[in-house]
């Protein structure tokens, strides 16, 4: 099973293009063991953010890669542009296909939920039942849950062809009571939704 590491990098409002250029050059000779899957930039939500997604066959490689970045004097080749950075490891829901390179968006909605204590298992159960019916409306890129950090968290990522498609499909699934997953909302403590667009060099775009 492929695991994932998600890294959010915040850069100055006027530094995005320079940051992407530096990131692209760094990734071409990346010392990381993880497979580079995506580089997206925030369009709606918290702005000036870059999301990097790496996939791992060996979960022990995730903390090793983190150490590589943390101890670097120039993280990701753009250390002078990084305002803040957060990273965490995730395990995908059983039975989901792995994230692979290709054209899937170009609009990606990334939804992050913090869960109440004890809420992870019932949330995973609810999602296991709901993913099939919901995926009949639009493709789910991935659903994953954090394996570190201070509180249980889940992330689900949905690709769409446009903003209009996203709004139309979400409205339809809610109206037809396909979404949200039955039994999941009571376990949610906080929710965040962001829209990302792919960088020109992102494998998943």
UniProtKB/TrEMBL annotation:
Descriptive protein name: NIPSNAP protein
InterPro entries, per database record: Dimeric_a/b-barrel, NIPSNAP, NipSnap_domain
SUPFAM superfamilies: Dimeric alpha+beta barrel (SSF54909)
Source organism (scientific name): Chelatococcus asaccharovorans
Pfam families noted in UniProt: NIPSNAP
Source superkingdom: Bacteria
Family the entry assigns: Belongs to the NipSnap family.
Boundaries of every NIPSNAP domain copy: 108-203
């Amino acid at each position: 099973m492929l695991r994932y590491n998600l890294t959010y990098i915040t850069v100055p409002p006027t530094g995005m293009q320079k940051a992407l250029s530096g990131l692209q050059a760094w990734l071409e000779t990346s010392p990381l063991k993880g497979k580079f899957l995506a580089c997206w930039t925030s369009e709606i939500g918290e702005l000036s953010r870059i999301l990097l997604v790496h996939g791992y066959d060996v979960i022990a490689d995730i903390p090793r890669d983190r150490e590589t970045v943390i101890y670097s004097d120039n993280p990701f080749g753009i250390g002078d542009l990084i305002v803040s950075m957060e990273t965490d490891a995730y395990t995908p829901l059983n039975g989901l296909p792995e994230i692979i390179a290709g054209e899937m968006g170009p609009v990606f909605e990334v939804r992050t939920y913090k869960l109440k204590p004890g809420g992870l298992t019932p949330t995973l159960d609810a999602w296991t039942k709901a993913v099939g019916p919901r995926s009949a409306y639009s493709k789910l890129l991935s659903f994953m849950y954090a394996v570190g950090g201070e509180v249980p968290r889940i992330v689900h990522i949905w690709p769409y062809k446009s903003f209009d498609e996203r709004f139309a499909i979400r409205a339809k699934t809610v109206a037809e009571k396909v979404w949200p997953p039955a039994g999941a909302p009571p376990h949610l403590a906080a929710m965040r939704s962001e829209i990302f667009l792919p960088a020109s060099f992102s494998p998943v775009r």
